[in-house]
């Protein structure tokens, strides 16, 4: 999937009262009509960052669009969802959308991240330490249920016999990506993981995923890290060229780059109920004049990023979308 764009919808903004459901559906339809975006993305959370539930919203988007892929990036509640039920929901979404569902799963935050994250794990009866095991086992279960019949599974967390899922996904195979960023900045600006954790995170992608989604990396960092993952995929007996890549990133078009970053910080602070460092926001955002935005996006594509999923970091979602479509996308042969 070379050099494609995705539009990230701010589904938490509905809970915050900043946009309406009609706004979200309209933005998705407009993005599709423009012919610029190949995918529409939504986020996922239960209690830690409340928003419209992701699979439900993607089902509504399946009816509002006809061409773009429908992605969740990342499904932070993957470890909370029983994989048999999720497999049924996700296969149904793939059927409803005509084979456009794109699942990017992740671990979600640890309990020590904040009280809301701890409450989310507690209310679902999931120990934070179990997240890695549940994610890896859950992917195995989904793959088997998507593509096999009379599935029997005896794992650490899930056990069942003779299960045949219907309907089957339209996509065969139905893609499952992993979203992770073990080396990125934390919201306060510090390093986030040890080398051992980074190694395990990359190995997990190489072993289990159809692609890797990440964020908050420079082009050089992305190139180096994806190179490591592809080398690991080869070690796992997989074709590294078949492994997809995507960056979950922010965008704000404004001739005054400082104002673009300041407005992005206000947006992200509100959206995540946080107080991000300026460094964190800058590393996570393509910002500035249309020319600068083009150059920064092109640098990511040149570094090997296959898909740029872009969130518009302004409450004027329609205005920023128009600027991107009119002043940035044409440089990539779009519109």
* Number of structurally distinct domains: 1
Q: Which fold name is given in CATH as the topology? A: TIM Barrel
Number of strands: 11
Please state roughly what percent of the residues sit in beta strands, choosing from under 5%, 5-15%, 15-25%, 25-35%, 35-45% or over 45%. 15-25%
Helix content: 40-55%
Rg computed from alpha carbons, rounded to a whole number of angstroms = 19 Å
Helix/strand class: alpha/beta
What overall form do the CA principal axes indicate?
globular
User: CATH superfamily assignment?
Assistant: Luciferase-like domain
Q: State the distance separating the first and last CA atoms.
A: 19 Å
Parts with pLDDT < 50 across at least 5 consecutive residues:
187-191
Mean pLDDT: 95
Given the structure, what is the number of helices? Answer: 12
CATH architecture descriptor: Alpha-Beta Barrel
N-to-C SSE string, H for helix and E for strand? EHHEHEHEHHEEEHEHEHHEHEH
């Amino acid at each position: 999937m070379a050099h494609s764009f995705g539009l990230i919808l701010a589904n938490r903004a509905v809970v915050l009262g900043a946009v309406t459901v009609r706004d979200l559906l309209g933005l998705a339809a407009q993005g599709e009509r423009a012919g610029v975006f190949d995918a529409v993305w939504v986020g996922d959370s239960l209690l830690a960052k409340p928003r419209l539930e992701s699979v439900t919203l993607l089902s509504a988007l399946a009816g509002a669009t006809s061409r773009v892929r429908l992605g969740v990036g990342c499904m932070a509640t993957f470890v909370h969802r029983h994989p048999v039920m999720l497999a049924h929901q996700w296969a149904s979404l793939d059927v409803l959308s005509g084979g456009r569902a794109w699942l990017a799963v992740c671990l979600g935050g640890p309990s020590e991240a904040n009280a809301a994250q701890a409450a989310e794990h507690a209310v679902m009866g999931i120990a934070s330490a179990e997240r890695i095991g549940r994610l890896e086992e859950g992917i195995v279960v989904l793959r088997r249920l998507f593509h096999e019949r009379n599935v029997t599974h005896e794992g650490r967390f899930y056990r069942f016999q003779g299960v045949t899922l219907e309907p089957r996904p339209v996509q065969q195979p139905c893609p499952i990506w992993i979203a992770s960023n073990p080396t990125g900045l934390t919201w306060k600006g510090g390093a986030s993981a040890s080398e051992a954790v980074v190694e395990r995170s990359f190995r997990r992608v190489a072993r289990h995923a159809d692609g890797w989604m990440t964020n908050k990396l420079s082009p050089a960092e992305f190139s180096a890290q994806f190179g490591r993952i592809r080398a690991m995929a080869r070690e796992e007996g997989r074709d590294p060229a078949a492994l997809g890549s995507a960056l979950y990133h922010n965008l704000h078009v404004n001739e005054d780059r400082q104002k673009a970053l300041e407005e992005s910080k206000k947006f992200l602070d509100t959206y995540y109920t946080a107080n991000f460092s300026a460094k964190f926001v800058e590393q996570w955002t393509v910002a500035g004049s249309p020319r600068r935005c083009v150059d920064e996006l092109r640098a990511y594509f040149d570094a090997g990023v296959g898909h740029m999923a872009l969130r518009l970091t302004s409450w004027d979602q329609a205005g920023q979308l128009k600027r991107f479509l009119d002043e940035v996308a044409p440089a990539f042969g779009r519109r």
